[in-house]
């Protein structure tokens, strides 16, 4: 049997083959020395070989050209071309590092072993070319087995063909772009944590890019219900990008919470100092402050100490009532009531900034390290399937 390939598809592969059969028919022995050549086998008995796992086979079609040669000893050489659409149960768990082993099964349809007993002589490639997605192994594994049916025992010849997928397409279209998008997500760790707009813009843009890449590449991936090897890589890449966005939100929330606590402590400290003043009436009704009066009181002469206290007290106590949306900002040097508490807050601010900076440094190291370790383990684990 001599075969050569023309194409290969998911769940089905097409083989252009020549089925060559040889046998001896004692009835065709003769005394002359002429060899008979026939292009039709209508007057001579021939085995009715067919492909068991073929969805479509040219062996069963009428009018197919054949070559039949009869020697004087009754030896018959029968060559028949056939375009075979053979089914194959592809396994995509390791896709695109998968190696597919597909079988072609041949047997006689109506003649059991009591009439025809097949013996495989040879199976080889007449012409073999590597396909766009697969590399074909040079060796064809063949075995012969006997199957028992209701009509008797039949000899079945199995040919196993090995297809090794070439991953160049998926490396260029999926693995490299995905790795680049994951690497770009680490840029957010070098942007100031307080710049939430820039960091979120980068993260969300990369997430949308990953979703677009998944949708774009979906047409080139097999449609199966289980998770493939390439799906694990894409899921891990998307998860890392999402975690960078979550890290950005968590750090910014922590910063805002800390700033709010610090401002509350500063206000409480100032309130306690001002409330202890003998020249200030706490029971005074809070009314909207006049900006000109406040500025005059604050920047007035040293004799206007009480007015300065009143303006500061008025501004602090009424800021939530009349100016909720504006943050409280003041210069520590202009208030004589802020002393050691401010220094303690400054030290606490330095510690807080150091903790945030250290957390960002850890994120810069951990996220790339996790992805690189995953990529190495992923490559080592799945590449071994290509060499089995």
Query: What is the string of SSEs from the N terminus onward?
Result: EEEEEEEEEEEEHHHHHH
Distance between the termini: 26 Å
**Overall 3D shape:** rod-shaped
Percentage of residues in strands: 15-25%
Helix content: 40-55%
Instruction: Tally the helices.
Output: 6
**Secondary-structure-derived class:** alpha+beta
**Secondary structure tally: strands:** 12
Q: What number is the mean pLDDT?
A: 77
Largest sheet: 7 strands, mixed
Low-confidence stretches: 2-10, 278-289, 294-299, 317-343
- Please tell me how large the radius of gyration is: 42 Å
Keywords:
single chain, alpha+beta, rod-shaped, 12 strands, 388 residues, 6 helices, 5-stranded antiparallel β-sheet
Written account of the structure:
The protein is an alpha+beta fold. It is built from 6 helices and 12 strands. Helix 2 packs antiparallel against helix 3 and helix 3 packs antiparallel against helix 5 (305-322). The radius of gyration is 42 Å and the shape is rod-shaped.
């Amino acid at each position: 049997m001599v075969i050569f390939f023309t194409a290969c598809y998911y769940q089905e592969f097409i083989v252009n083959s020549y089925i060559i059969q040889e046998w001896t028919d004692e009835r065709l022995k003769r005394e002359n020395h002429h060899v008979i050549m026939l292009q039709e086998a209508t007057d001579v008995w021939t085995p009715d070989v067919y492909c068991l796992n073929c969805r479509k086979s040219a062996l069963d079609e009428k009018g197919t050209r054949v070559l039949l040669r009869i020697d004087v000893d009754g030896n018959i050489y029968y060559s028949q071309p056939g375009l075979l659409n053979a089914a194959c149960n592809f396994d995509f768990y390791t896709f695109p590092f998968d190696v597919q082993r597909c079988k072609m099964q041949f047997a006689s349809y109506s003649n059991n072993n009591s009439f025809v007993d097949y013996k495989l002589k040879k199976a080889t490639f007449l012409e073999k070319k590597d396909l766009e997605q697969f590399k074909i192994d040079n060796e064809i594994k063949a075995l012969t087995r006997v199957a028992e049916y209701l009509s008797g025992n039949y000899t079945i010849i199995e040919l196993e063909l090995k297809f090794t997928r070439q991953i160049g397409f998926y490396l260029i279209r999926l693995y490299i772009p995905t790795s680049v998008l994951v690497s770009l997500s680490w840029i957010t760790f070098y942007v100031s944590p307080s710049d939430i707009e820039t960091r979120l813009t980068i993260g969300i843009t990369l997430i949308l890019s990953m979703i677009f890449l998944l949708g774009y590449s979906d047409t080139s991936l097999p449609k199966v219900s289980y998770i493939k090897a390439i799906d694990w890589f894409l899921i891990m890449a998307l998860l890392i990008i999402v975690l960078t966005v979550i890290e950005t939100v968590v750090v910014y929330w922590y910063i805002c919470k800390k700033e709010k606590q610090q401002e509350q402590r500063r206000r409480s400290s100032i309130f306690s100092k001002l409330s202890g003043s003998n020249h200030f009436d706490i029971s005074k009704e809070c009314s909207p402050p006049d900006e000109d009066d406040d500025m005059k009181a604050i920047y007035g002469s040293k004799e206007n100490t009480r007015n300065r206290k009143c303006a500061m007290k008025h501004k602090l106590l009424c800021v939530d009532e009349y100016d909720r949306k504006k943050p409280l900002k003041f210069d520590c040097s202009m208030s004589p009531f802020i002393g050691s508490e401010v220094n303690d807050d400054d030290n606490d601010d330095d510690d807080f900034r150091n903790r945030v900076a250290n957390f960002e440094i850890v994120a810069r190291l951990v996220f790339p390290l996790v992805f690189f370790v995953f990529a190495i383990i992923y490559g080592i684990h799945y590449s071994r399937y290509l060499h089995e």
